[in-house]
């Protein structure tokens, strides 16, 4: 079910379709996404769920403006995805981010600030804000070669929100994270939503997606199989970040001892 909403949608996909030709122009067409229609309001969290090859990453790349639709429409706050107006409203974390290992976290964010055309007078303050938000303030001046997988993911989140976008796109953000990293990721996503930022993330972790998301979309072979709020799909209550389980709590206590 697609709910009603009067202000511009943070995300609006209308029969979005994307075809590839893996063997070149003379090869057969592969339909990665088939006539997908979705809407997401500001401040909502949408989880894209499905197996590998279901179209999750293709959809996120199209929303980020990295891929053009074969047919249909893909709009961000009313603007065509990939346009300058849409790109200015989007932050994106790819599935496997690669950052220059010789840079420090702070240097990398300074580089990203330049790409985002942040005013020079606000760059230092904004970088300190996202470093604190992501829990990387103490590691800001370490080289990225020394960062763990979880720290790299948090830095990716920091660069995605550096320019204060209205929409944040996260492709498998929990991939490779330990339990503490997954819990921190969940808190960061819900904090973004509480500030009015829309979030779309893909995941294979179904339990985490159910607990974090205001809306869920299940994809299979490029098609939408089910979509709605947890209440619509399961009769569940509003989304909330669950407390750590007993095993997760024990893990965290022992790791911090």
Short structural summary:
The chain has 257 residues and is α/β, with parallel strands linked by helices. It is 33% helix and 24% strand.
Commentary on this structure:
The protein is an alpha/beta fold and 257 residues long. The chain has 2 domains: 11-89 and 165-256, 3-Layer(aba) Sandwich (Rossmann fold); 98-163, no CATH class. It is built from 9 helices and 10 strands. Strands 6-7-8-3-9-10 form a 6-stranded mixed sheet, sandwiched between helices. Strands 2-1-4-5 form a 4-stranded antiparallel sheet. A hairpin with a 2-residue loop joins strand 4 (71-76) and strand 5 (79-80).
| Shape field | globular
Strand fraction: 15-25%
- What oligomeric state do the depicted chains represent? single chain
Largest sheet, strands/sense/barrel:
6 strands, mixed
Helical content (DSSP H or I, runs of 4+): 25-40%
The computed structural class is alpha/beta
Quickly count the domains: 2
- Straight-line distance between termini: 47 Å
From N to C, what is the helix and strand string? EEEHEEHEHHHEHEHEEHH
Poorly predicted segments: none
Can you give the mean pLDDT? Answer: 88
CATH architecture of the largest domain: 3-Layer(aba) Sandwich
Rg (C-alpha, Å): 18 Å
Would you state the CATH class of the largest domain?
A: Alpha Beta
């Amino acid at each position: 079910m697609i709910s009603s909403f009067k202000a511009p949608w943070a995300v609006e996909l209308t029969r979005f379709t994307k075809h590839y030709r893996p063997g070149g122009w003379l090869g057969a067409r592969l339909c990665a996404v088939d006539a997908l229609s979705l809407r997401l309001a500001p401040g909502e969290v949408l989880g894209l769920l499905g197996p590998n090859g279901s179209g999750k990453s293709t959809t996120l790349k199209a929303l980020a403006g990295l891929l053009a639709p074969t047919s249909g429409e893909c709009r961000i706050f009313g603007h065509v995805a990939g346009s300058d107006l849409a790109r200015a409203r989007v932050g994106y974390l790819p599935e496997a981010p690669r950052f220059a290992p010789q840079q420090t976290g702070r240097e990398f964010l300074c580089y990203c600030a330049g790409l985002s055309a942040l005013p020079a007078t606000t760059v230092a303050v904004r970088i300190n804000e996202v470093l604190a938000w992501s829990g990387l303030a103490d590691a800001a001046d370490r080289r990225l070669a020394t960062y763990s997988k979880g720290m790299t993911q948090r830095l990716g989140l920091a660069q995605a929100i550096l320019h204060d976008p209205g929409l944040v796109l996260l492709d498998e953000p929990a991939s490779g994270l330990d339990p503490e990293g997954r819990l921190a990721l969940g808190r960061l996503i819900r904090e973004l939503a509480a500030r009015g930022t829309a979030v779309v993330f893909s995941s294979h972790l179904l339990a985490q997606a159910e607990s974090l998301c205001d809306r869920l979309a299940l994809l299979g072979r490029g098609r939408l199989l089910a979509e709605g709020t947890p209440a619509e799909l399961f009769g569940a209550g509003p989304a909330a970040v669950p407390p750590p389980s007993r095993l997760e709590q024990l893990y965290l206590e022992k790791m911090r001892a």
